[in-house]
Design brief:
Blueprint (H helix, E strand, L loop, with lengths): L2 H8 L14 H6 L2 H11 L24 H6 L8 H10 L5 H14 L3 H14 L5 H8 L5 H7 L8 H9 L5 H12 L22 E9 L2 E8 L1 H15 L3 H10 L4 H13 L3 H16 L13 E3 L7 H16 L3 H13 L10 H10 L3 H15 L5 H14 L2 H14 L4 H8 L10 H9 L2 H14 L6 H19 L3 H13 L5 H10 L2 H4 L4 H4 L32 H8 L20 H21 L11 H13 L1
Parallel strand pairs: 2-3
Antiparallel strand pairs: 1-2
């Protein structure tokens, strides 16, 4: 409310706040403070209006030198009555020019609205540069794209799955678990956003893992994880444990180093294969917690400007742990949390996208109802990333428009997508369990399904296996059926786009990039992994699947003697013990020299293990299956003997 409105409500009652007329200025200087305050209290009228409380602060100000109006005018939070101020000016004519200028400025401020003054004050504070050092450098960089920063920024509250579970099931359901976790977090020195530690976790201490700022470029900060000598020693022991094909050896490492990242990721895969999903998820959460406790002080996940290059071996663990954690959140039904972690994964390297988070982000955006975010991502990135050439975006964006109620855009984009990717329709309907009619089995869709390149088949199989549930809704199927019939009409009329899109499919999808292979391998969607080449599908290194060709390692494993020529080697002894003619006193047979790459050695070991298992099974005679109604048959046989 403005000061003008206050004066209208208060009227002339505020005039009683002036000093008594029988008290001169000289008397106020000599009179004791106690008597002066008593007289003011006698002259002070009773408060009849709530707005008069704003002016009572004048009596509480110090009056040591008698310049009451001067001290009150310097307080920006007190509204001064214009009439009262003019009377005080008549009694104090000995003021200098500086005081007159100050009072003139204050009276001008009184004529302005208080809201405008507040806005001016906020702008003044912001213009004074109350920003962090990193924020100032980012704002000064003209090459920095502010829209990308806002798009990839992460909200910490959405990283906690408990917040989403409370919205789904209610706070009472998970109150006990949340209280226990919060109590544990209060005992920690740092707050963790990516994972919430529990009481069962060992204290983290010093892990030997750290992070340093590598460089600042184009408004983004590039970081790098580092391993100290003790961590490197444990890393070498971990390689030996993986090659032994014995999960107990990995568990032994975690007993001594409970927050070793690669050991946690590999053991999580072991638990997942044994269908212990809770323990598998806990191992990944411990890995994320360990890495977050090692973050650099300038590494801020919320800004979307912190980068980690995937080519560095030490950085790849965070990517893999995030990807597995996203899948775990999706299995628990926390789609909004999974979307936020996907944004974090994409922000680490949006240009190269080593795990192709763009093939994942649309699914969780649709499942969590974040249609506006998905449409914005498409509109802002389509110009430089060609998102429309990815089948998942080609079909998810019109689906988002459909849920938003924009039917015209949804119909137009869906028809265009069906013309560009006609091989999507038949697998999608089969996965949804929908009986296709004559329009869906049109020759245009069938021919395109068998003639499309292998790379496009992999992308379509990935999208169908992951997002088919988004299309099973009755209203969505009805909308899809309507647009399929429209596309058939355009095909029969020989739309010129048909030939254009056919040539585009044959020319653009000639080969599958390595990062898409990595994404399909880690997603473990059966319809997609079935399309992988044999050499890619046989990858068993969960802690580093398909490393990039330009991989950079800060340290290397020291050279070791040939394990094939070493008696008593655990791995060699294990393989030989599986053979039927195993003799512990017989020396190990000669084998070829071991390769320098641990991944090749491990694959060879797995192959030898499988061969040994086949030989073992071939020399074992399987027991005959039990005969049904064996007791009845025996009784009948006994009766026949008596006869």
């Amino acid at each position: 409310m403005s000061s003008r409105a206050l004066r209208k409500l208060q009227g002339n009652d505020l005039g009683a706040l002036e000093l008594p007329e029988n008290l001169s200025e000289e008397d106020t200087d000599v009179q004791p403070q106690q008597n002066r305050s008593k007289k003011n209290k006698k002259k002070k009228p009773a408060v009849e209006n709530l707005f008069e409380l704003l002016n009572e602060a004048e009596d509480q100000l110090p009056e040591d030198d008698g310049n009451v109006s001067e001290e009150v005018d310097t307080k920006p939070d007190i509204v001064i009555n214009q009439t009262s101020k003019q009377k005080k000016k008549k009694k104090k004519r000995k003021k200098g020019k500086e005081k007159e200028v100050t009072e003139a400025e204050n009276s001008a401020k009184d004529d302005e609205d208080e809201i405008d003054a507040s806005i001016r004050e906020v702008n003044r504070i912001l213009n004074n540069g109350n920003l962090g050092e990193g924020e100032i450098s980012a704002a000064a960089d003209v090459n920095y794209n502010a829209s990308n920063k806002a798009l990839l920024s992460v909200e910490h509250k959405h990283l906690n799955p408990e917040n989403e579970l409370k919205r789904i099931f209610g706070s009472r359901t998970i109150r006990e678990e949340g209280t226990r976790r919060r109590g544990q977090m209060r005992r920690r020195q740092k707050v963790s956003w990516m994972a919430q530690p529990t009481d069962s976790w060992p204290p983290i201490g010093k892990t030997g893992l750290s992070m340093r700022l590598k460089e600042t470029k184009d408004g983004c900060q590039y970081f790098l994880f580092e391993h100290n000598q003790q961590y490197q020693k444990v890393q070498f022991e971990f390689y030996d444990a993986v090659e032994s094909l014995n999960p107990q050896n990995i568990e032994n490492i975690l007993q001594l180093q409970p927050y070793h990242i690669d050991a946690l990721i590999q053991l999580s895969e072991v638990f997942r294969m044994s269908e212990d999903l809770n323990m598998a998820a806990e191992m990944i959460e411990r890995a994320l917690y360990s890495m977050e406790m090692s973050f650099h002080s300038l590494f801020n996940m919320a800004t979307g400007t912190c980068r980690l290059e995937y080519k560095y071996r030490e950085n790849r663990s965070l990517y893999l742990a995030l990807f597995k954690h996203i899948g775990s959140m999706g299995q628990r039904g926390c789609n909004r949390t999974a979307l936020e972690f996907t944004k974090l994964l994409l922000s680490l390297d949006p240009d190269n996208d080593p795990l192709v988070a763009l093939l994942l982000i649309d699914f969780y955006a649709i499942r969590s109802g974040e249609y506006e975010f998905l449409v914005r991502l498409y509109n802002e990135w389509e110009a430089h990333r060609n998102l429309s050439q990815l089948p998942n975006f080609a079909f998810s964006i019109p689906l988002a428009y459909f849920h938003q109620g924009e039917s015209n855009k949804a119909d137009e984009m869906l028809q265009d997508s069906l013309l560009m990717f006609p091989g999507m329709l038949s697998p999608l309907l089969d996965k949804c369990g929908v009986q296709a009619d004559q329009s869906a089995t049109h020759v245009y869709f069938k021919d395109a399904e068998y003639s499309q390149p292998d790379a496009l088949k992999q992308l379509i199989a990935l999208y169908v296996g992951r997002c088919y549930a988004c299309w099973k809704l009755p209203e969505v199927m009805e909308w899809l059926e309507k647009n399929v019939k429209t596309v058939i009409d355009r095909v029969e009329k020989k739309d010129p786009l048909i030939e254009t899109y056919k040539q585009r499919r044959l020319s653009r999808y000639k080969g599958t990039p390595r990062n898409i292979y990595r994404h399909i391998l880690m997603s473990e969607i059966p319809t997609a992994t079935a399309t992988l080449p044999q050499d890619v599908a046989s990858t068993v290194l969960s802690f580093d699947p398909l490393p990039p060709l330009d991989s950079v390692e800060a340290y290397r494993r020291p050279a070791r003697p040939n394990r094939a020529q070493t008696d008593g080697n655990a791995f060699s002894m294990f393989l030989r013990s599986l053979m039927p003619n195993f003799n512990p006193n017989e020396p190990a047979p000669e084998q070829g020299a071991a390769g320098g790459v641990e991944g090749n050695q491990l694959r060879q070991g797995v192959g030898a293990l499988m061969d040994a298992m086949r030989d073992l099974l071939n020399n074992i005679r399987m027991a005959e299956p039990p005969i049904e109604n064996q007791e009845e048959n025996e009784e009948e046989r006994d009766l026949e003997e008596w006869d």
